[in-house]
Structures are given as C-alpha cells and as structure tokens.
Amino acid sequence: MAADPPTLVFAHYFGGSARSWTPLLHALGGSGEQIVPDLPGFGGTAPPMTLTLDTYADYLADRAGVRPWIAVGHSMGGKIALACAARRPSNLVGLVLIAASPPTPQPMSDDDRRASIEAFGNRQSARRQLTSIAGRLPPALLEICVEDELRVAWPAWRWWLEQGSRADISGRTHGLQLPVLIITGDDDRVLGSDTAAQIQRGLPNATLRTIADAGHMVPLEHPERVARLIRDFAAKIGGTAA
C-alpha cells in the first residue's frame, strides 16, 4: 500500500511572505499536509537574533517536526532549503527548488546589490523592481508583492543582500543524494537561464523542469503548472517511502 505524500514545508522568496504561496496553494488543493510560514523578518515578523542560512534552515526544519517532509523553496527560499538539506535532517525526504538561488554566491552585480540595499522601504522602488521581474502578474497580485516587500525587517533585508545571497554552501550540498525537483522559468531575469542547470549538476538525483513563458516569479505566474509538478514529485516519494 502506497504511503501518504510527505508534508510540504514552504520557504518563500526574498521580499515575500507566507501569502506569496497563495496561488500555488489554491492550485495544490488538498494535496497532503502543507506548512506555510513567514520566514523570520518577513511578512511583518521579527528577524531572528542570529541571521545565518543555518538559522533559517533550522527554523524550516522545526516547522516540519518529526514527520517526513519536502522543503519547497522559491528563490531565497531555495537556498534556505539547500542549507537545510546540507544539515542532513533524517526526515527530510526531498527538495523542490523553484527559481532557486544557487548554493554558490548568487549572481548579482555590486551596483545592483547596492541599489537594492538603498531601496529598502521605498514603495516606488519596490513597485518598479517587481514590475520588471513580475510584469506578468495581475495588478492586484503585484500589489500584494509590493506590500510584502515593504513589510520586510531591515536586518533581514540587509542580511540577505550582504551575506545570505553571497554565502557559498556548495561544498556542503554537492552530491546530496536526496530526490530533488528543480523548476525554472524560461525567462528568469533575476537568475538567468544557467543557474538552474548549475544547481542540477551538483545534485545527482535532481530533475530539471522548465516552464515556458515564465519568469522568476514562476509559482505566482503559473501556479497550476508548478502544482502539477509538485504533486507528481511528492506522490512518487510517498509511494516509495518505507
């Protein structure tokens, strides 16, 4: 008899919040248990006392508890999911990495990094930046993304841009044997077309799926397509669980 699909534990993108997953959660419907937190420092929450990838990784693992689980990470959340896997929790049975920041330093120019730091809390800058990478979204959904960005705590904002995105954990993640589903858009203007393939090369059990006519915000742009891939992946893992 097939086992139930593992619990899905979600880690949102930089500037997002738990509600960034709403379109995808609707598309997933009742596909197993889903845990959807605001990462500390995002969604109006307080940042952690210590800001490191491992702090966020442990936070994600704590949400899962002792149940078998899959970490589902988008962009920044993808790097956090990889950091979690690097710590080898015994009940983590798979990863879904969506337009994920790589385990190596994220490709970003010093000028862009500086501009992003200086744009903190600026509604006009947030709307302009999000429109450039998420112009496919309906206006109401784009406005939610803008509001979420304005709710990020300054320490978390600065940490990701100056430290988290620059961290190199590739030595800890290379060769991980977990099943991994990598999802990317064919028009990701944040990470480019090569990042997903780079991540796949370091993960021997990774499958890469590219969604057409999609950018960096692929889970919000095409939630039904992403949900279908996640359901199939989770069902396969659940079906092979002991």
Description:
The structure is a single chain. With 242 residues, the chain is an alpha/beta fold. The protein has one domain (7-240): Alpha/Beta hydrolase fold, catalytic domain (Rossmann fold), CATH 3.40.50.1820. Helices cover 44% and strands 13% of the residues. It has 11 helices and 6 strands. It has helices spanning 22-28, 53-64, 76-86, 110-118, 123-134, 139-150, 154-164, 170-173, 195-201, 218-221, 223-240, and strands at 7-11, 34-35, 69-74, 92-98, 180-185, 206-211. A 6-stranded parallel β-sheet has the order 2-1-3-4-5-6, with helices on both faces. Strand 1, helix 1 and strand 2 (34-35) form a beta-alpha-beta unit. It starts with 6 loop residues before the first strand and ends with a helix.
Secondary-structure map:
Layout (H helix, E strand, L loop, with lengths): L6 E5 L10 H7 L5 E2 L17 H12 L4 E6 L1 H11 L5 E7 L11 H9 L4 H12 L4 H12 L3 H11 L5 H4 L6 E6 L9 H7 L4 E6 L6 H4 L1 H18 L2
Parallel strand pairs: 1-2, 1-3, 3-4, 4-5, 5-6
